[in-house]
Amino acid sequence: MPKFKLKKLSPSDGEEIYNFLQKIPKEENNFHNSFHGLNYEEFKNELIERNNESKSIDLKEDRVPQTMFWFYVDYQLVGFIKIRHYLNDFLEKHGGHIGYAIAPEFRGKGYATKMLELALQEAKKFGIVKILITCDKENFASRRVAENNGGVMESEEETCRYWIEI
Length: 166
Prior knowledge:
Elements: E1 4-8, H1 15-21, E2 27-28, E3 31-32, H2 40-54, E4 66-73, E5 76-84, H3 89-93, E6 98-102, H4 111-125, E7 130-136, H5 140-148, E8 152-156, E9 159-165
């Protein structure tokens, strides 16, 4: 049985994570990887900014606090996930409470389902009891991930909206 672990983003994260994040596209299925394409110094600055954001320090006007985690399977980094502590008007429509990505070479193995399961436990620690997950209508993999974690579809237009009670 594989060992699964979420590790909270830290400003001290280094080259392993930097190199990993370059494998995940900058934009895919409405998921934005803000680390892609940065040089190493920019990456380190982004880690500090994301760490501050998780603590509501220097939040930009259009942002909400979010905490990021790296997802490991048997000590190998395979994905990352963001938990937004609450929703603003934009996230109510696009993005929801949680966004995630699995590196292309690890997709189709059920890892996203497990990563979301672990993230739901973390979300509970932030006092979130009802999670909104959104995904493109044609993103059947993400739809299965939400459904496998108890997601109930609220609507299915261009964007599917799933609610998960935890």
